[in-house]
Design brief:
The protein is mainly alpha-helical. The protein contains 10 helices and 2 strands. The protein has a two-stranded antiparallel ribbon. The radius of gyration is 18 Å and the shape is globular.
């Protein structure tokens, strides 16, 4: 265990620009290729619902459980006042959540700690697992956590760093696509109970403006993540 702790607390050398760009391209393929996206999108749902749950706990609501579904939708149930700042904060957290998690990961990587990032992610997944209330959600979190654990425990430094880069890029790049899918669903007549539409009912601000806010925030996180990645010339 002392060796594991040393790996977590010891900074690694920065990866080459080629590795950073290569993992970004690989992440983009996982997002842009529809047959793969149908499966990899579940990671976005995990981050989305995890963000709902985290904020619900932080604002003092009682978290009653999280469900993840095979169509990559999900629901987080919390008990508390159905209106007010706390409920608004919970609804606001979902779509920006993956981007903000990705930005936090980019910050940790910019300091040279990919192993710490992976073990921190494992801790968050364990906490999330305690709130899962359906079998598919349980399978999804366990499968993703097993992959992260395997890389953290058995992967070489290069593999750990590359995987951390890939996951970070995936979250940063996937978050804007999820917002686009939200608006596409709303235009098609679906999504009436989406986060944006629930925010409209709570605040009176049009849902389209909330979608625009989600989009701008996810793009801002992506831009800052690119800056922290070191791929831009000084």
């Amino acid at each position: 265990m002392s060796e594991v702790w040393d790996n977590i607390t010891t900074a690694q050398a920065d990866p080459s620009v080629r590795v950073v760009i290569g993992t970004a391209v690989a992440a983009l393929l996982l997002i842009a290729w529809r047959p793969v996206w149908r499966h990899t999108r579940q990671v976005v749902t995990i981050a989305h619902e995890g963000a709902h749950g985290l904020i619900a706990a932080l604002v003092g609501r009682k978290l009653a459980g999280i469900r993840l579904h095979s169509d990559t939708s999900g629901v987080t149930v919390s008990r508390g006042h159905p209106t007010g700042p706390g409920m608004i904060a919970v609804l606001l957290a979902g779509y920006p959540g993956p981007a903000l998690f990705g930005l936090g990961a980019a910050f940790v990587l910019s300091r040279g700690y990919p192993v710490a990032l992976l073990w921190g992610l494992l801790l968050l997944l364990v906490l999330l697992l305690l709130q899962i209330r359906n079998l598919f959600g349980l399978w999804s979190v366990v499968a993703f956590g097993t992959l992260v654990f395997a890389v953290s425990w058995w992967g070489s430094e290069q593999v750990q760093s590359g995987f951390a880069q890939l996951l970070t890029w995936f979250l940063l790049l996937a978050a804007p696509r999820a917002v686009l899918e939200l608006q596409h669903s709303r235009r098609g007549g679906g999504g009436r109970n989406s986060d944006a539409d629930q925010l409209r009912r709570l605040t009176g601000v049009p849902a389209l403006l909330w979608v625009g806010f989600f989009g701008l925030l996810t793009l801002a996180c992506l831009a800052l993540g690119v800056v922290w990645s070191g791929v831009l010339p000084d």
